[in-house]
Structures are given as C-alpha cells and as structure tokens.
Amino acid sequence: MAGIHAGLAYNTFPLMNGHFMPPEILVVEPLWLNFFTNMATVQFDHRMITWLLMGLIPWFSWRIWTETLAARTPAVVLTLWLAVQVSLGVATILLQVPVALGAAHQAGAMVLFGILIWANHAIRRAGN
Asked: Is 53 within the bounds of a domain?
C-alpha cells in the first residue's frame, strides 16, 4: 500500500468510493501486475485480507480459549490488538494517510505478527 501510495486513492470505508469492488480493479495488463501497481487492486486486496483476518483471528482465539488454558493470554491480546490494528488502518484511510498514522499502522502489523508468534509459542509449549 505505502509503496504505491494506494491509501490516497480510496479514502472511504467500508466501501471504496461507493463501490464494494472499484471498477478500476484488474485493468492493468498483464493481469499479475495489478497486484503490485494498480492502486484499486492493491487496496481491495488489503481490505479483503483485513476482513478475512477479522473472521479468522477471533475464531482462532476462541479455539485457543476453549482448548489451551496456557495460551489464553496471548489469544486475548491477539484479538484485542487486531481491533487496534484495524482501527489504525481505517483511521489512516479516512484521514488521507497522515504519515504518523500510516507508520503506526505499519508498526502495528509487526506487533500483531509478534503476538501471533507468542500465541504459537504458548500453544506449542502447552502441548509438551
């Protein structure tokens, strides 16, 4: 997103300028280039990954909560941080990508990844 300034193209949420899928998606030839250079495709994919994670991470955390007592803390932190990360992303889009907010969103992704590693470690450790 940051490399091609895709966050500057569609500053509405949840729709992208009134569209679920903007008409400019997948218009670049060859087709595969859209995923790297087309702002509409890049931002659409970023949003779809967000929606996917908003379903998968709470489900994953719920599974941890019901099956692995030792990993409950990282499961809760993972779900809570996802909410922070999504909020940062939405705010970044709506405010037309202020640098500090965009950087916080990028840093938040690394924190989310770190919490996921922590949860993985706790699950593996509980299994031994």
From this structure: yes
* Predicted confidence (pLDDT) per residue in 5-47, tens digit: 988 999 999 999 999 999 999 999 999 999 999 999 999 999 9
Q: State which amino acid sits at residue 78.
A: L
**Number of domains making up the chain:** 1
Q: Would you say residue 1 lies in a domain?
A: no
Secondary structure (3-state) at 69: helix
Structure tokens at 75: 């499961």
- Cα–Cα distances in Å, from 8 out to 16, 24, 27, 61, 90? 11, 15, 19, 33, 12
Residue 112 lies in a domain: yes
pLDDT digits (tens, 9 = 90+) for 58-102: 999 999 989 888 899 999 999 999 999 999 999 999 999 999 999
- Per the structure, the complete domain to which residue 57 belongs is given by 6-127
Give the ranges where the chain is alpha helix by DSSP (H): 34-37, 39-67, 72-94, 99-127
